[in-house]
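Progress report, Aim 2. The chain analyzed during this reporting quarter is listed below.
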Amino acid sequence: MSKEILAAIDVGTTKICCVVGAVVHDSLGQLGLRILGSSVTPSRGIRRGVVMDVPEVTTAIGQVLEGAEKAAGLRITSAYVGIAGSHITTTNSAGISPIDSRHGVTGADMQRALEAAQAVSLPASREVIHVIARRWKVDEHTDIQQPLGMSGHRLEVDAHIVSGTTSAINNLAQCVLEHGIDIDELVLEPLASGEAVLTPEERYMGVAMADWGGGTTDLAFFRGNGLWHTEVL
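Predicted structure tokens for the chain:
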């Protein structure tokens, strides 16, 4: 699907939603999203955010995709898919990368630090969904939100690691892939909710967000414009 057209699917315990939007630019060049169509259908085969009946969930997703495509007047070929549920767990981890002092911190340095933070010990039945930087440190300078371009010798990241059970992730993915839809990314639902309803000022000052669903309650804590902690109850 065109990069200018985005679709998202939210598979919840009581309902399944799909929305399609077009990326737009205002007169100042700021990015926005114009909603083209959406659809909602009752959820079946989900318990506490986890797929318990693959055929039932696959059928329900097919119905919501059909409704969203009809409303938007286009074919959905890929989508971002929300994930939550009782199988989600989180932990924090640190990662380190050396810095070439001639060039300062680069995007590659930041990626290496995040990859080092991701090297946490997980059971074979679990896999990482997100590695999210909470804050950065360059040499002795701490609580940095954006280290790109800073001079130094050592880059360290304090990262928030979100993981889920491989079986739950694969079952959800199977229900979507069955319709020929590519998954652009699995997105933790409290993270998506925070991006949707919180302002940058609220996230920077520190805020707790709760999203009460039909089967689970999603919590996200933001501080210094970064995601500090998430939990699915």
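The chain has a mean pLDDT of 91. The longest strand covers residues 126-138. These observations will guide the mutagenesis work planned for the next reporting period.
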